[in-house]
Amino acid sequence: MGEDRYESETAYPAAESSGDNCQSLYYDGEVPKSSDLYVFETITTFPYSMMAFCTNRCVDNLECLAVDICDSNGEKSCRLVRFLKLNLTTTDSSKTCRRYKVDKRCGYGRHYDEILKECKPLYVCDFETITEPSCFLEESQNDRFNWNRYSGRTGSTSTGPSGAKVGKYYKYIEASSPRVLGDNAKLVSNRVFKDETYCLSMYYNMYGQTTGTLKIQTRTGNDTAVTHWKKSDGQGTKWHSIELYLPLNDNTEIIIEAIRGSNFYSDIAVDYIVLWPIACP
Ligand SMILES: [Ca+2]
Ligand SMILES: [Ca+2]
Fold this sequence. Notes:
This protein is mainly beta. It has three helices and 18 strands. The radius of gyration is 21 Å and the shape is globular. Bound molecules: calcium ion (CA) (2 copies). The site of one calcium ion has 10 residues, from strand 11 and strand 18. One calcium ion (CA) binds next to strand 12.
């Protein structure tokens, strides 16, 4: 039923002026109607052409990464979405929206800047490949040990994630011997950033009775590092997400640091770390 209902969208003619705009979105699949998406505008009044209407409000909007066309009980709405969250697929067609992503053909790991009208790097660390050109973080040598790139459940019971949040691989600190209380591992940025607004989004998992601390810092030049976010102790088995405003310039380094707690139940994992060249929601 869900599929058929939406087929009729093509019957709504795009407005004359928006024909080209509609071409810049492509159908990406179904997503749940209710979710923790960052919807920054929802339009419930159904205009003569929902698709064209929504598209017009999305194109030339730096924040708009997708338009969702939703339909429940014959009532249509659309929502403009930024910060696309992952793992949204659902099999319940009564609770889905059709997602149209903005298609600027910048290629993987790049983002179209609607203001500058150019493709810019979208910094992504997904850890799916050992060499990851889009990743802006690397292992620090200025700490006690390195993060592990890993897939599946970590070696110790009752600590660590059961698998990656996105894809197959993630990075984590292995808290077992020889690690001791206070041992730290840092991921540090290896790029020069522009003096612009950035938002860092990240999934993290801090499962374990004796979990230590995970923090996100920036350091400008030789200044003391500034802590922007910090979490300590066990946070349950689930992956959590954060979005964090980071003030960056061409002299700023990003530091993601995990610190081992009092016992080996202290695996800390991260996945799908993205640095967005736009403001946080
Ligand atoms: Ca991953
Ligand atoms: Ca290290």
